[in-house]
Amino acid sequence: MKVPDSLSIAAKTTLKRIFASKSYAGFPALLSAHEHSPLLSRRRAEIISSRVRLVAGAFAVLTPLWIIIDVLAFPWPIMAMLMAGRIVTSAAFILLALYCRGSSDIRIAYRGMAAMFAIPTAFFLFSHPLLSHYQMAGMADAIAAGYAFLPFVMAAGLSVFPLTAKEGLAFATPILLSEGVVAVMQVDMLSWSSHLGAFWLLFLITSVATLAGMSQLSFMSVIVEHSARDSLTGALNRLSGVDLLDFLFHLAKRNDEPLSVVFFDLDNFKKVNDFYGHTEGDRVLARFSSAVKKNMRKSDLLLRWGGEEFILVLPNASCDIAMEKVAQLRKQGFGLRPDNLPQTASFGIAEYTADNAKTWDELVAIADLRMYQAKSTGKDAVVGCGT
Ligand SMILES: Nc1nc2c(ncn2[C@@H]2O[C@H](COP(=O)(O)OP(=O)(O)OP(=O)(O)O)[C@@H](O)[C@H]2O)c(=O)[nH]1
Where does the secretion signal sit in this chain (predicted)? Predict the structure, then answer.
């Protein structure tokens, strides 16, 4: 789709991105979590774990409250056994709510979700066969029948989470299996066609809930991407960039891997604005960042630090690798200015082990200082580690 020339560069870039997403470029990300950007993965982990905490907290209270109804409806000893089951279930929910504290680690979010579905599944496998072995009538029979619907409630609960298709399937499998186990245990009580009908309904609810989770995920990925990026250059904005840099810094420390940052600033950019206007200046900035992005690995990050200052974050890259990367970028060029001269930049490189930086902001400050040294040596220059 062609974007009209009269629009500003920022508006054009945004529209192009929207059209790109309309071509379903993001579709694989709805199937598998491996396609997600680190930013989306982190936000998703935060949402999943905070919802697990919320649901676990709510059920930690509601599960024991139902004891009152069980006491009124069921005779001894069923009522006592159900009460014990509910107390254990509620304790498990309390532990889960304490464990899941809005973590941005997707592994913790997965574990929390698995536990959140495992707890009621275990309660279902305990309570449903127990109740079906007793003959009941009236109110007791109606309440006992309600216990059979627990897997349906759990399957519907999948819709609360932003999930991929694979994740939906993975979390639904134990729920479907528990229904199958109960069907086998009660094969003599209900006809196969009734079991098959219940299983089919459960499968349909699971599919619809997974689709709802996928649509949540798709909506969320658009919002995260749009709010995280600077619309003119497509680089990460400072707020989300710093968030990821902090994460990558801690990851590098934990894994004892190098992490380099390249701080760079366009040379004499003010003159472009002053002589040719801000629209031309915007074009130069957009060309500059797209030239940088062309040479980035998928795991590298480009941040717009402010104005015409950028930071390139290179995980698992030593100082020498960062120097090579900058040499490669400069060789390839950053596009032309309106006067047809090549746009240049000044670079400062820092690596956290070589420069003994304790925090990511210390690392950025060192690279920034080196960038100023590069400016003071006449611009269009690089100052690397150890200088
Ligand atoms: N067009 C445009 N200009 C911007 C944007 N952000 C910052 N600028 C301009 O960038 C210019 C930065 O000027 P200076 O800090 O003097 O930098 P410089 O001219 O590149 O000089 P050196 O850094 O010393 O090479 C200012 O004119 C800002 O208005 C932007 O988004 N679009």
Answer: none
Whether 116 is covered by a domain: the verdict is yes
Q: Quick check: 2 pLDDT over 50? A: no
**CATH number of the domain encompassing residue 263:** 3.30.70.270
pLDDT in tens, 233-260: 999 999 888 988 988 899 899 899 999 9
Are 207 and 324 contained in the same domain? Answer: no
Q: Which atom of ligand 1 lies at the shortest distance from residue 269's CA?
A: 20
The residue range of the domain holding 152 is 32-227
CB neighbourhood size of 140 (10 A): 19
375 CB under 6 A from ligand 1? Answer: yes
Cβ–ligand 1 distance for 238 under 6 Å, the answer: no
For the packed helices 106-132 and 38-65, what is the interaxial angle rounded to 10 degrees?
30
Among 230, 263, 272, 273, say which to mutate for ligand 1: greatest number of ligand atoms within 8 Å of CB: 273
Q: Can you say whether residue 307 is alpha, beta or left, with left for phi > 0 and alpha for psi between -120 and 50 degrees?
A: left
- How many separate domains does the chain show? 2
379 lines ligand 1 (CB under 6 A): yes
